[in-house]
Amino acid sequence: MISRALQTPAYLVSIALFAICPLFSGTGLNAGECDDLLSETSCLAPESEWAFSARAIFLQRDTPDRSILAINTADNTQFVDSSGFDFDFETGYELDLRRMIGDDCQLQLRFFSIDSLLDSNTTATTNNNLLRFNAAIPVFATSGTGITSSFGSDLYNAEVGIGKSLNDWLHLSVGFRYLELNDSLEMSLTGAAVPATYSAQTRNRLYGAQLGGEALLWQCNKLSVELFGKGGVYGNNAAHDARLGTGAATVTATGSNDETAFIGELGINNSMRLTDCLSFYSGGQLLWIDRVAVGDRQLASTNFFSGSGYDGDGDVFFLGFSFGLKLEY
């Protein structure tokens, strides 16, 4: 899954942003006035007490692992595969506020959100064949002309932390993160004599401590490149609700559990100072969330006859890029 994630356009964009940043300098990489790798400029201007940044972020969720959700028992070339959901980039925003405490410490607040990452597909089926939904105990329905399916995801993140500069180029932090990941998956028969719809929703509420770091990699005149990373082990209050409805009846299934999850985040930021107080920022990031309930894994564990079902062993990658402004004063 990692190799597939690294092949996405978001990763390529982040690498391109890192590569072209020096080209905007009036003097170039080999200029004599460029600072060394360990420059004398810290991540925040020493004279600044406050720093606030606002960015537009563009995230893409990776493609789910292959799993046959529904299949025509009379023609096994007609099926719904979870790996057929191919998410595009979705726009969100990120806000970051920092306050210096003393000479080398700072309070950090960060929030970002992405609403409605969504992909939809239509699978053609032969009319009046027997369809099988691959639940823990399979459920059958009479096919129509097709199956329409959609998969959506929402992501919300809030953080608070305390950071300390160890030297002019390295900054470490410890803090608390709260993250929500919500999935919804739906499949509906079209043109069927008896309508049937399957829907599933998952909710993940992750909370816990994390460690982070920022390293100034390069600086030249008004340009700089910074690498950042964060990670931690979190509690996850996760739940799943499923519904299968026909023209005659509707059955439901639910499940939940308290999991131990992991979040890892890695990114790169490019900064171009416009004035003494204002900078333009761009960058790329990779976010990995492990041991969560994801929508595409729930059907196989769902038993509509007992009304139960839950799978919390999923993981998901989000890749993307961002740009915005940073104000220091």
Structure description:
The chain is mainly beta and 329 residues long. The chain has one domain (2-328): Beta Barrel (Lipocalin). The chain is built from two helices and 14 strands. It has helices spanning 2-6, 9-20, and strands at residues 50-61, 68-72, 75-81, 90-101, 105-124, 130-133, 139-142, 146-165, 170-190, 196-220, 223-246, 250-273, 278-292, 314-328. The strands form two sheets. It has a ten-stranded antiparallel β-barrel. A four-stranded antiparallel β-sheet has the order 3-2-6-7, with no helix packed on it. Strand 4 and strand 5 form a beta hairpin. The radius of gyration is 24 Å and the shape is elongated.
Name the structural class. mainly beta
Whole-number mean pLDDT: 89
What is the distance, rounded to the nearest whole angstrom, between the alpha carbons of the first and last residues?
A: 43 Å
Give the second-level CATH assignment, the architecture: Beta Barrel
Fraction in beta strands:
over 45%
* Lateral arrangement of strands in the main beta sheet: 1-4-5-8-9-10-11-12-13-14
What's the Cα radius of gyration? Answer: 24 Å
Characterize the quaternary organization of these chains.
single chain
Query: What's the number of structural domains?
Result: 1
Q: Within the CATH hierarchy, at the fold level, what is the topology?
A: Lipocalin
Order of helix and strand elements from N to C terminus: HHEEEEEEEEEEEEEE
Question: Regions with pLDDT < 50 over 5+ consecutive residues?
Answer: 1-33, 35-46
- Measured as a percent range, the helix fraction is under 10%
Q: Tell me, briefly, the overall form.
A: elongated
The overall strand count is 14
Characterize the main sheet.
Answer: 10 strands, antiparallel, barrel
Number of helices: 2
